[in-house]
Structures are given as C-alpha cells and as structure tokens.
Write a structure and sequence with these properties.
By secondary structure, the chain is α/β, with parallel strands linked by helices. The chain has helices at about 1-10, 10-20, 25-40, 45-55, 70-85, 100-110, 155-170, 185-200, 215-225, 240-250, 285-300, and strands at about 60-65, 90-95, 115-120, 140, 150-155, 175-180, 210, 235, 260-265, 280-285, 310, 315.
Length: about 325
C-alpha cells in the first residue's frame, strides 16, 4: 500500500479509502490510485478488509445431501441469486440429518466467516432439536415448520398437490391413488395431506397411500403394486423421478399410460418432457425460491425483521400422461 501511495502521490490513507470504495474520494485521485495499483500489480486483501468490517460477502448453505433434485436445483438458484448480489456461497452438505451434524456445520461455517446461512431442510429437525446457533449469523430455512424462529421460504406444496389431484378428478377419474415421498420429509407430508384433503372435500374414496424414497427404483416397486390394483386409473406421484419408475412398472405389466391409467408427477424436472409418455407434472419455481432465500438473508443483514413463511406458487404442466378414464367395458 505504501508503494501505491508513493507512485500515485497520495497518502496510504487515501489508498485505503479507494480500496474500500469510499465515495468521498474525488474521481481524479481515485483514477491515479487505480492506475498505480495496476502498474504495481497490487490487489487489496479482501479477507483482511472483511474481517475489519465484519462483512464477509458470503452466504453459507447447509443441505441434507445433493441427491435430491429439489435440493440441487434450490442450491443452484441460491448460488445464482447470491452471485448477482455480489455474494459467494459456501456449501456444507450433511450425510445424515442429525442435531450434532447441524451444529457441526454451523461451527464450520462460523470458522469460514459467512454473513448468513440458508438451511435446506427436508426433515423434521429444527422443530424437534434445541439447536444452539451462532447468535450473530442470520438464518433462513427452506422447507421447514421453523416459523417463529427463522424466516421460511418454500414452494406451495399443498397448492401443487391440489392442482395434480383436481386435474385427475376433472378428467373424470373416480379417485386418485398416491405414491408419497419419505415420511420424514416436510414436502412429502404436505403433498400427501393435500392429496387426501382434496379427495375428502370432493367426496371421493381415499385409497391407501404407498411410500417411496424419491428414487425411480422405489417408484418402480410401488408401480408394480399399483399395476395389480384393478380400480387404479389415476396416480399422483410425489416427484418426477419416482413417476419414471411407475411408468416403467406399468409398461412391464401391460398397463397403458394414459389409456389405462393416468400419472401426474411433481417438480417438472428437465427430463419430464422426454419420458414415454411425456409426463404431466407440477412445476416448482426453484429460481424464485432461491431468489427469495437470498433476499430474506440480505434483508436480515440490513437489520430488517424478517418472519413468517413465503410461499412460491406452483403450476400444473399438462402433457401426455393423463387422459379421461376409459368407459366401463371400453377397449
């Protein structure tokens, strides 16, 4: 810094002010200092400046693994939104959703110096564990019931499930079977609850729900069981990957989609339009979820009070996997 000051003919304090973006430095002086920096190859130490200001321009993300489509797409959206705001993202993936692991992740992020943390929580952890979090770190949670403790951002899971079930009922199906996600998942629970509530509100029978683990393999196993249900003409599957397995099982058992049975998924992953047949599904706006997470974190950093749940609407995408049921005795 002293070399830059000498070359530019200014004080070291002026060089420091230019490095920190002080608007009070007149333009001609700022340009001289920047030119001297370029000539000498000087780069301000951003880490040291961050420590001095207590502003690290970094957001930490804790997620329960990167195998879930929703987690990966949410993380991608958070990273993009953070970058546009001039923030870096530090990722801590957890291999198991335990209280100790979450505590350890916060400790690690505290050491790495982040301003805020986004937790992508698919499990009932924050509401059952008395987590002691670093008091100075701002927290935003995705997909949780942690309202009152932290701001929450989520897709409107119930709205999406209702759209799926109502679509099938409107086509003329008497009822809708359901392949749910894992029991510990908030998203799976909300989708399952909305499926059942919609059927009851419409006065329809509620078939026993099957459960998978988000994978195509679990969808295939459930699909084999559904294929043996003669009264099953419509299925709402809790995610597109399990729906892929259901489609395979129906194909192997000679149950045509949508002629014999209609299938609706959830997520609208990029491959859904290339399934055979192309999958009718519920689209989640992951980009908006990510943007709202970053927005909530930055608002907290500005000292604003951010509470409650911000829900992102869903949209039904109709493709070729759904149709009206065949008339009784039809071919």
């Amino acid at each position: 810094m002293a070399d830059v000051a000498q070359l530019a003919g200014v004080s070291s304090q002026t060089v420091s002010r230019v490095s920190n973006g002080d608007p009070a430095v007149i333009e001609s002086t700022r340009l001289k200092v920047l030119e001297a920096m370029n000539q000498l190859g000087y780069r301000p130490n951003s880490a040291a400046r961050a420590l001095k200001r207590g502003d690290f321009r970094a957001i930490g993300v804790i997620t329960m693994g990167l195998t879930s489509t929703g987690n990966v797409r949410t993380l991608d959206a958070i990273a993009g939104s953070a970058s546009r705001e001039g923030y870096a993202v530090t990722l801590i993936p957890l291999d198991a959703p335990t209280q100790e692991n979450v505590k350890g992740a916060f400790t690690r992020l505290d050491e790495l110096a982040v301003d805020a943390v986004v937790l992508i929580m698919e499990v009932h952890l924050l509401d059952t564990a008395a987590l002691t979090l670093p008091p100075h770190v701002k927290v935003v949670v995705v997909d949780s019931d942690a309202t009152g403790r932290f701001p929450v951002v989520d897709t409107d899971q119930r709205q999406g499930a209702r759209q799926a079930v109502q679509h099938l009922l409107d086509l003329g199906h008497e009822t809708v079977w359901h392949l749910a996600g894992p029991e510990e998942s908030f998203a799976a629970g909300r989708r399952s609850d909305a499926w059942e509530a919609t059927l009851r509100e419409e006065g329809r029978a509620v078939p026993p729900a099957l459960r998978g683990d988000w994978t195509p393999e679990s969808g295939y196993e459930a699909g084999l069981r559904l294929a043996d249900e003669p009264g099953c003409t419509a299925v709402f599957v809790a995610n597109d990957q399990m729906a892929l397995g259901v489609l395979r099982a129906f194909h192997e058992r000679g149950r045509r989609v949508p002629e014999d049975v209609s299938v609706v998924g959830f997520d609208d992953i990029p491959d859904a339009a290339s399934y055979i047949p192309p999958l009718t599904t519920v689209r989640q706006d992951f980009a908006e979820v990510g943007a709202l997470c970053v927005d909530a974190a930055l608002r907290e950093l500005r000292g604003e009070t951010v509470t409650g749940v911000r829900l992102v609407p869903t949209a039904l995408v109709e493709r070729s996997s759904t149709a009206a049921p065949r008339p009784a005795g039809g071919v």
